[in-house]
Fold these 4 entries.
Entry 1:
Amino acid sequence: MSKRANLYRFTWVNKWFMVKFAILAVMWYGAYLCFDVVKEIKPLKTFIPHEILGVEADATVAQVKKAYRQLSREKHPDKNPDNPEAVNEFITITKAYTIMTDEKARENFLKYGNPDGKGTMAVGIALPNFLQKKEYQIQVLVAFFIIIIIIIPGYFYNKIMSNEKDVGGVDIDNRKIFTELIPENMLGKQIPGILAHSFEFS
């Protein structure tokens, strides 16, 4: 096989390798962009009555009323005309006060997260309970990152690379070269010379 043919084959394989590398780089960049967007997402604002009023979950009605009076004076829309959110904040405080001073609503909220009691529809995720706990969030995210960003792309990349190997792990291009060079009655001393024609050496 001529040097020109070997050079052409070497150049073509290099180009194919660069294409695969570029695809992998684009995938990594896409994953980075997703991570960058996700980390900027602010958590949803949850409605927790006792936290809104600044009291403990087991606070007495008197403590709740005292906290409500103080907050309602501070957050009343008439005292905050420049704050466009003043009305919504005052409504939220009043709603929290109503729940915390109604024994049944308070019990339902603490038990079910809803002042009206248990809902008719329960939504859940088919994951073990420990994966949904706050103290394991970092470990779950790290495991997700490793699996999605490293293991899965690595698996497919390995599959792509293995497809270029023939039986016995011999490169397909080398197989073509060796088929032309290896005679039926090959001597052992010819092996180094034949190997020297392999794609890697050329």
Note: The chain has a mean pLDDT of 76.
Entry 2:
Amino acid sequence: MANYQFRRAKDDPTPRELDIYGVSAKRITRQRDFIWLSLLLECKNLRCPLVFFAQKEIRLRMFLGSPHISGLPRHGFARNKYVDLEDYLKLERFHHYYYRGKTSTQFCAVWNRSEGDRNVGSNKRKKADDYTTGQKVGGEIDLYKDGILKLVQAVSADKREYAARLAKEKPAEWVELWFYYPVFVTSGSLYECFIGKRGVPRYRGNAQLIVEFE
């Protein structure tokens, strides 16, 4: 679904719009038991690079939190006691939220002061002072507010609407779990900046990182 609309709060009179929303479902038993995957995409046509500041994390739920999940059940019975669904499914062993080597919690764009994000392909020699960094590219696009925060709000709205629908249905005991995957898409290059033990930043192109949406 393109141009998907959602509301930041239940009584919000003005809906916001997400670029792409996709849903997939898999029946896991012969009964009414489904696993749902919800993909939320926000796209920005940026030609300037984005730099993500990465750090190594201990790949445990204790430090990274849980993937975005809603639905039933939220607990499983194992080792003669009820445990959280994340522990019951052992998500730390296979979910991409945990097996990536690094996590990014800060980012910025780099663009030409005079040309905004339209600074690709120019043969003119540039100096360091010709460039600036930030999350408001050229004073026009707010990458955090119109990108990352919008994804956070869209996931929250999806969870809220599903919880309201589930409360009305008063379901019997069946499995209906939703896993949410917020994704930020840009046409520009991605770079990872990692500060190692010696305190010297190391940059790497075509970065593939997990960005925490919290």
Note: Residues 144-169 form the longest helix (26 residues).
Entry 3:
Amino acid sequence: MKYLLSLVLLYTSSAGAQRATPVVRLSHYVLDSFTAGKVLLKSGATYNQKLNYNALTGEMIFDADGKYLAIAEPQNVDTVFIQDRTFVPVENRFYELLLPAAAPLFLEYTCTVQEPGSSIGYGSASNTTAATSLKTLINSGGAYDLKLPDDFKVKAGRNYWIWKAGKFQKANTVQQLGKTFPDKKDVLNNWVKEKHSDFFKQADVVALVAQLEQ
């Protein structure tokens, strides 16, 4: 079993072996903690492991006794299940399925990390130095740690997508939804006006798209 698992996973960092999983929210991970889940491969094989999604690197991460492993070949994965949540691979990232429907709704988690520019003298700062520092953090495996260095500021982001007509179409605004559902523009505008839909609230977006799917 361990041998087969090694064929699917890529060892990414050995730092922090045997560390305890914190109960506080992880700034660059989607879930509050690593949670028991299942990976279903396109071959039909399944693997059970503690999972979390790293929005900074765009990888599904395993916690194997404090060692962090990432799926090496997402294209071989069919679905990832974590509790009642479902994730599917899209190119080199994973999207969460929010609404299974004829035109299903997905959520892409993103993460922007800002680091204060390192001083280069005379009160100035270098953005290039900051960017290099972030690249070094990722390459060294530091981006897999449960907590980033204190000087890195994390800003979570998200993009909504609808799979329709054989491609992913953006669903972040009323205008984008109008292009995806051109025959439902009246329903769309009336619903947003009556319900005061807020695209910053996931529940509002799911309810709106569910209405358009009817």
Note: The first strand starts at residue 9 and ends at 13.
Entry 4:
Amino acid sequence: MNFDSVILWVAVAGEVLVCGLLMKRQMWRILPFFCVYAVWTLVSDLVGDLILQKFSNAYGIFYFYQTIADSVFQLAVLGELGWSVLRPVRQSLPRGSRAIVYALIALAGLAIWPLAAIAAPQSLIGKTAILFHLQETFSILRVVCFLVLACFSQLLSIGWRDRELQVATGLGFFSIASLLVTVLHSHQVWSPQYHRLEQALSVSYVCTMTYWAVSFATKEQERKEFSPQMQQLLVLMSGGARTGRMALSDLPPEPSRKRIK
């Protein structure tokens, strides 16, 4: 068994352990999309390896659609993290806040899309270029979400023992490693060093699984209330939204309104 096979099966073992800990901690109650994503990752890795070994000609098609599905899952997970962070004040937020959080994540992805094209090697064409562009966009998006949560952790009253920051940290670490490997690849041609970078990326994925396993094996600390500054900001935002709705409801019917020409 070569090193690549060892890394693959160590990663799969890590995914199995993480999935088991997610079920044990009943994480589906607060992060259902992430739990589904963890199971999806495990199943897709096993199916992908089987297809590569038995039906290698079909692996390219599988990988293309698997990457698209993976991106959709990641978008759902990132939106879920943003909404879960707001748990302590959800009741005071205006209706539709959850959709706004997901929309903001999607808009951030759209803003990152043209930036991700800068790192794409000019030699890539067709589906390969699309996949590369998609993967880099979500890698950058995951890093951005991690940095936002980490930088505003004090205002959001979350720490390294909170599940949201643990999940974001794992995603952020692997994404940073992925971006570094991509930058180095863009200045390389195929060589033994090229493959060693891919192996290093696989090792970083194993490190992510290890970090999540250790994190999820410990009990989550009780969620703290938001800082006074954040509570005040959210109350102002919520009050402004409610005031706008009340003002709209108080407007007279359309026929009796004065028209401004």
Note: Residues 14 and 131 are 26 Å apart (CA to CA).
